[in-house]
Design goal:
This protein has helices spanning 10-20, 43-55, 97-105, 107-114, 122-137, 141-152, 175-182, 184-188, 233-262, 271-278, 286-294, 300-307, 320-340, 397-400, 432-442, 470-481, and strands at residues 2-7, 31-37, 64-65, 78-83, 89-96, 156-160, 166-170, 190-195, 198-200, 212-216, 350-352, 360-362, 374-378, 384-388, 405-406, 408-410, 418-427, 447-455, 458-467, 486-491. The chain starts with a strand and ends with a strand. The protein folds into six domains: 2-105, Beta Polymerase, domain 2, CATH 3.30.460; 117-152; 156-231, Ubiquitin-like (UB roll) (Roll), CATH 3.10.20; 243-307, no CATH class; 346-410, no CATH class; 418-491, Alpha-Beta Plaits, CATH 3.30.70.260. The protein is an alpha+beta fold. Strands 1-2-5-4-3 form a five-stranded mixed beta sheet. Strands 12-14-13-15 form a four-stranded mixed beta sheet, with no helix packed on it.
Length: 494
């Protein structure tokens, strides 16, 4: 620890009396004390402050915490004032050694600390000499800063919020990148920005030292053009996600409008018939048609009128019972091979009621995998059927209180792959299935069966895949949700 003291210079006192219009008696910071701690723990600064103020009373209105909230130039220190011996007010500064170097040498010290370079390193001295020469040669503060930033920050820039918080951004970042770095909602609602107090365009490139204020509006929504402007991956992902969600909502809204128009006509139109009527608008898919209908780019009544002039084949929509039957048949087919290999699975994958050598099988209705909360039911054949606890077939309270219920726990040593089903809903666009299967194959997962049904520009896909446990299944589902055009991914339950 190092303690430095100073008495305010006569010229400094004179300048303060002039600038503040005060008499000499009103100048209280004639003495100053600086405590420099050789530590990296910020908490130590507050500990020292607490120790000093126990000996000498502090003056609360002079306390400033520049450690938790650094100044816009990165300066950090604890500032306060205390009543010292003989009643004199003493200015107090408490900081770590790194903070002190930053205060004395500026960004150069911050760079040295960040790169963990030795104080004795010759490169550091060379760098500091370069900085001093740059100051000497610069004809103005502006030209110095420009030269300094161009030479120092090649790959990243340091930008500040209006409150002085520093954000590290890649070179070429725009106000939109900065907005998403603060918060997703700030990025989504960004309509403009002020850089150093001046309004700039959203595609303006930020520079180190810029102070950026984002202007937002609740009515603003991300635009596809933004993807050509932003450079950070976070901003790109958030923009795509927002556009994807907005398109999905528009498609649903447009479908609702179309169905209302068809009410009372007793007519149904196939996808091809819809496309045939909207080709002149430059639309290629039913999803495009519904989206345009929702945004009032086309007139639905006009399209319906044109469609009535052509022959249409009635298409019978599937009832809920038909879809349920098809799903059941699909699941039965998917599991058929597994049953042929042996209806009862290995005896070491689960522990039932704390006992071994009990015959069991997995319920086909919910297909539990390791990591799921499970429960067992003993059948009349003496075989324990393993269900997920949230399975609809075991939600009956009377059934749960039955003596046939047994506790089940997964064997942590199991290395078997389990069959699980997932349901994917998304926009029917070209190449969507290829993107989905690519994600699954990269995840080192085998696909058992795939079923895909498309209607009105939307698709519903069901897959049976082999996974090791519920955690890996959840990770895979999260990756699938990020595929462009995919709206929802969920576990398949018959």
């Amino acid at each position: 620890m190092e303690v430095q003291g100073r008495a305010k210079h006569l010229f400094s006192i004179y300048n303060k009396m002039r600038s503040k219009n005060k008499s000499f008696e009103d100048i209280h910071d004639l003495y100053g004390l600086r405590v420099i701690i050789d530590t990296e723990r910020i908490a130590d600064c507050f500990s020292v402050y607490g120790f000093i103020t126990q000996q000498y009373p502090p003056i609360p209105q002079y306390f400033k915490d520049y450690i938790s909230i650094p100044k816009h130039n990165g300066y950090q220190s604890l500032h306060s004032a205390i009543i010292g011996p003989k009643g004199h007010m003493v200015e107090l500064q408490i900081r770590t050694k790194r903070m002190h170097e930053f205060a004395e040498l500026g960004v150069a010290a911050h760079w040295r600390y960040k790169e963990k370079i030795s104080r004795d390193d010759a490169n550091v001295d060379s760098f500091l000499r370069w900085a001093r020469e740059l100051i000497k040669d610069a004809d103005s503060a502006a030209s110095f800063m420009e030269g300094f930033k161009l030479n120092l920050y090649h790959d990243e820039i340091y930008v500040f919020t209006p409150k002085g918080d520093m954000k590290t951004m890649p070179a070429g970042a725009t106000p939109i990148d900065f907005a998403y770095a603060i918060h997703t909602e700030v990025g989504n609602g960004c309509i403009g920005a002020k850089v150093n107090g001046k309004i700039v365009r959203l595609n303006a490139q930020l520079k180190s030292g810029d102070r950026v204020e984002i202007i937002t509006s609740k009515n603003q929504k991300p635009k596809s053009d933004w993807l050509k402007i932003v450079v950070t991956q976070r901003a790109k992902l958030k923009i795509r996600s927002a556009i994807n969600e907005e398109r999905r909502l528009q498609i649903e809204k447009g479908r609702g409008i179309w169905e209302k128009l068809l009410t009372g006509t007793k007519k149904l139109f196939t996808d091809s018939e819809i496309i045939q009527q909207v080709k002149k608008y430059g639309l290629k898919t039913p999803a495009d048609f519904f989206s345009a209908l929702a945004s009032q780019q086309i007139n639905g009544e006009e399209v319906l009128e044109r469609a009535n002039g052509f022959k249409k084949e009635e298409s019978v929509t599937k009832s809920a019972s038909d879809e349920a039957r098809e799903l059941d048949e699909y699941l039965q087919t998917a599991r058929h091979e597994l049953e042929q290999q042996g209806g009862l699975v290995k005896k070491d994958e689960v522990v039932i009621a704390g006992m071994s050598n009990i015959a069991y099988s997995y319920a086909k209705c919910c297909q539990p995998v390791p990591g799921d909360d499970v429960i067992g039911f003993v059948t009349a054949d003496g075989v324990a059927k393993i269900h997920r606890k949230n399975c609809v077939n075991v939600s009956n309270e009377n059934l749960l209180k039955s003596e046939r219920v047994v506790s089940v726990a997964w064997n942590r040593k199991v290395e078997t792959d389990f069959l699980a089903g997932i349901k994917i809903v998304g926009e029917d666009r070209m190449g969507i299935m290829n993107k989905i299967t690519t994600v699954i194959s990269k995840f080192d997962t085998n696909i058992r069966t795939v079923s895909l049904n498309a209607r009105d520009g939307m698709f519903v896909g069901t897959m049976m895949i082999y996974v090791r446990n519920a955690e890996k299944l959840a990770t895979l589902m999260d990756k699938l949700k990020k595929v462009p055009g995919v709206f929802t991914v969920e576990r398949l339950i018959n």
